[in-house]
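> Could you send the Serine/threonine-protein kinase prediction when you get a chance?

Sure thing. Input:
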Amino acid sequence: MTVLGNRFRLLHRLGAGGMAEVYCARDRRLGREVAIKLLNAACSRDPGIIERFRQESSALARLSHPNIVTLLDTGETDDGRFYLVMERLRGEALSELFRRLRGRGEVVSWRRLVGMVRQVCMALQAAHSQQIVHRDIKPSNLFRLEHSLEGEDMIKFSTSGSPSSWRARTPGRKSRFT
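Output:
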């Protein structure tokens, strides 16, 4: 198995986006599982994508909120691929939950959905207070954790396969994102 930074042993792939893959890894120093978002080789040669990846890691490093995935470390492989090390989330993306329920002819109750949306809004408020915006809000970037909080779903923003989900807002620059 591949080891990144002489510390993180890749165990298996969790998913992939257009520009990066996410792996489950073992932190050999701390003895715990983490998630590694590894930029693919082609994107690692594109200066613009590398800059967006660095912006995302910088933005995530400034955020500390129970509804936002925690960034633990960053690094670069021997062959020049950049990666983020994050807490390992256990559960499912909201897109998977919605798909599974739809397949059974069910939907999420409005009470349950209100609880989920409330957590998303709290995470966005925390990010916005740091002048950070999320540019790709969708169910596949929101994760429902296996454990619940007093009977309520626990929702976290995860990072997607795109390297530019979290960005610091540029003062004076108009944006079509809120």
